């Protein structure tokens, strides 16, 4: 679970961390660069559909962290940020997370 990754009970390859967010490599990468950025405190934010006004700051911090991750990973010139929401949106972990994907040509529309 992401909570165990945050608590460092499950090892992960951390790319970026600050007081509010943690970014680590996806264990099943879909691109040469595939990093997940998560809030350290879930605070009811199991998916984007659960966002409330109090979550605005952390949502911004997640996107800023995605930019920092892209720079650190050398893909700042071209990357994709994805948030899957709900079963039909292919969300599999109900702790809001941002995928940062890069290192290959992205296609549009996404599948």
UniProtKB/TrEMBL annotation:
Q: Residue ranges of the HIT domain?
A: 1-111
Q: What's one GO MF term for it? A: adenylylsulfatase activity
Pfam families in the record: HIT
Motif interval(s): Histidine triad motif: 95-99
> Which residues are the active-site ones?
97
Against InterPro entries, the record matches this protein to: Histidine_triad_CS, Histidine_triad_HIT, HIT-like, HIT-like_sf
Q: Which CDD domains match?
A: PKCI_related
Give the matching PANTHER family. Answer: HISTIDINE TRIAD HIT PROTEIN
> What is the recorded name of this protein?
HIT domain-containing protein
């Amino acid at each position: 679970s992401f909570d165990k990754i945050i608590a460092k009970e499950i090892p992960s390859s951390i790319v970026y961390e600050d007081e509010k967010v943690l970014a680590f490599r996806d264990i099943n990468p879909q691109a040469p660069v595939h990093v997940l950025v998560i809030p350290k405190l879930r605070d009811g934010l199991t998916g984007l559909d659960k966002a409330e006004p109090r979550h605005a700051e952390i949502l911004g911090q997640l996107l800023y962290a995605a930019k920092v991750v892209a720079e650190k990973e050398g893909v700042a010139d071209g990357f994709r940020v994805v948030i899957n929401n709900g079963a039909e949106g292919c969300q599999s972990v109900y702790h809001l997370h941002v995928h940062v994907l890069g290192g290959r040509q992205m296609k549009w529309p996404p599948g």
